[in-house]
Amino acid sequence: MAPDPIKAKATLTARREEVQRLSDNSAEARDTVTLDQTSVGRLSRMDALQQQAMAEATERQRAAELARIDAALNRIKDDDYGYCLNCGEEIAEKRMEIDPAATHCIKCAM
Fold it and tell me: What are phi and psi of 90, to 5 degrees?
C-alpha cells in the first residue's frame, strides 16, 4: 500500500516549521564569541567557543534535515513520493510513517 502523500505533507510541513523554529531560537548561540579578556576569563572563553561550535554543528544538522524535508515535499508535488530513488520500487508504508523524508527502500538503504 502506498504512503498517503496528504498525511506525509502535513507531517513534513509541521516538522519543517519545528526545525526552523529551533534554528531561529538558537541563532544567538551561534553568534561570534567576543574574545575580550577584561570581561571573560580564559576558561569562560574556551567554554563559550566550545558551546558556539556545538551550536554550529547542530545548525548544520538542522540544515541537512530541512533539505531532506524540502526534497520530500518536492517529491510529493512531483508525484514521485514514496518511491526509492535508487531502484524505483515503492518504499514500505511503515518506513515512510517512521521517516516521511525517506528516499530509499530498506534493500537499497543497506
Answer: -70, 135
Q: Which residues of 13-36 are buried (b: 16+ CB within 10 A; e: fewer)?
A: eebbeebeeebeeeeeebeebeee
What does the alpha-carbon distance between residue 85 and residue 74 come to, in Å, rounded to a whole number? 13
- Whether 99 shows a pLDDT value over 70: the answer reads yes
Rg, Å, the chain Cα set: 19
Entry pTM? 0.79
* Confidence band for 43, pLDDT divided at 50, 70 and 90: low
CATH fold for the domain made of 5-109: Four Helix Bundle (Hemerythrin (Met), subunit A) (1.20.120)
Annotated domain spans of the chain? 5-109
